[in-house]
Amino acid sequence: MIKKNAGVTIIELGWDDLLGTYHIYLSAYNEVKKNPDFNDVIGKTKVPLTEHIDAFAKVFKEVMNKETVFCIAKMKNEAIGQCYVRQYGGPGVETSHVGVLRIFIKKEARGKGVGKKLINAVITRCRGKFDLLELDVVSKNDPAIGLYKKLGFKTWGVAPSFFKRNGKYKSLEHMYLKLK
């Protein structure tokens, strides 16, 4: 049982977090099957570990090059959440001042302050690197939307029927936070 913020540490991504990030992804992927209103677009098929390793290596290089901000929430050395911000469009383009935020928190860690602590740590590391953060969230994910609003994010639009999951259309809410 995870108590509110008890023993949760936030660290920057390290190479030894490879499997932890994969387990967080798997928990999110499996949860979408049970709760179609959870999460944003995650993919119709499960990403195998070999593909995750390739993607992780790319993101890890971006973190080492200071292009991406990536933090992990850990409890008792187990990864229970991750949050990262990548440049919109990549380095050197007119949108490189915009960071796209993604966050995944294991179900058993939600509602206990982990997401807030994780996002705040990432926002702190994004100041001076990005002027604007944006994110997308499933329109029916009220707990996540509530958290983002408490942290200062504002809705700038809703994309109706943006993606299709289990034969049903889902809308995405677009949110932003000005850092300057």
Summarize the structure.
With 180 residues, this protein is an alpha+beta fold. The protein has four helices and seven strands.
Write out key terms for the chains shown:
single chain; alpha+beta; Aminopeptidase; 7-stranded mixed sheet; 7 strands; globular
Description of the structure:
With 180 residues, this protein is an alpha+beta fold. The protein has one domain: 3-Layer(aba) Sandwich (Aminopeptidase), CATH 3.40.630.30. The chain is built from four helices and seven strands; from the N terminus they run βααβββαβαββ. It is globular. The N and C termini lie far apart (38 Å). The mean pLDDT is 90.
Our measurement of the CA-to-CA distance between the termini, rounded to an integer number of angstroms, reads 38 Å
Radius of gyration: 16 Å
Task: Count helical runs.
Answer: 4
H and E string: EHHEEEHEHEE
Quickly name the level 1 CATH class: Alpha Beta
General shape: globular
Provide the β-strand percentage band: 25-35%
CATH topology: Aminopeptidase
Q: What is the number of E strands?
A: 7
Alpha-beta content class: alpha+beta
Largest sheet: 7 strands, mixed
